[in-house]
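Q:
Got a chain?
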Amino acid sequence: TDSLSIDSTSKIDVSGKGYLAGRTLGNTTTGASGYGTGGSYGGLGGIGSNNYAPNAVYGDFTNPNELGSGGGSGGSGGGLIRITAGSIQLDGEIKSDGGSAGYSVGAGSGGGIYINVSTISGVAKITANGGSVSYSWYGGAGSGGGRIAVYYSDISGFNTANIMAYGGTGYRNGSGGTVYLKDTLQGLEDLIFNNNNASSSATPLTVTGKTFKSFKVSNSGNVILTGDLVVTGELAIDGGTLSSEQKIQSGSIVIKNSGLLTHHSTTTTDEYRLEITTDSLSIDSTSKIDVSGKG
């Protein structure tokens, strides 16, 4: 469309319209989250009290094109929204959140949102948050966040902090999904992980062959990388955790507010290390680079 306008009373909403409980990519039960465990998509589902594994994360953070996964015997995943528009005035919401759950069952993961727009403005939110579990002391886990990608020429009239793919909360919390932003005029790419201060297991992420303008892990975001990380601008670990395989190259690195940079734990077959190249490195008094016990 040439233009899309959503007023403050309205929304585009496919929350809970993805894969049903106990089902995942391909609409199958094979590999789906077990009873009580949250669904995964961009972020990993939390593990319920019965300790069944979550389904694996899937999809491409640059091109969300899948439904979210259902939780174990609980909520459905978020659906899928894909929008191409000349302009978007967003004062309502665009949502693909996971379905919530209660007691001992798992919530559904956030879904997928892809937006390709020339200009986006407004004061509302774009969300693909994982579902949460009420009365979670019975053992039901929160789900992983979904995936959001926004391609734009002008985003100056929109607060990108209002683009969210948080993991859901529960007996164990789900991990945050991916928020990817690309300036199509300059070809610059940003990737954001923010888990809204809910601690969780790590989101697996492959970055091989990618170069980012900025890369941010914040508010209990927790990311484990495959491949070397290349950032031309700032790598920010702000109250989050980033685990690398080996090489990190960034214009600047800021680690603050109990941020942690580490590498993966060595196994009987694989060895890891941190090789950091940067123009400036700042670590505040609450934060650290720490590979203790990882040899």
Observations:
- The first strand starts at residue 3 and ends at 6.
- The CA atoms of residues 7 and 131 lie 25 Å apart.
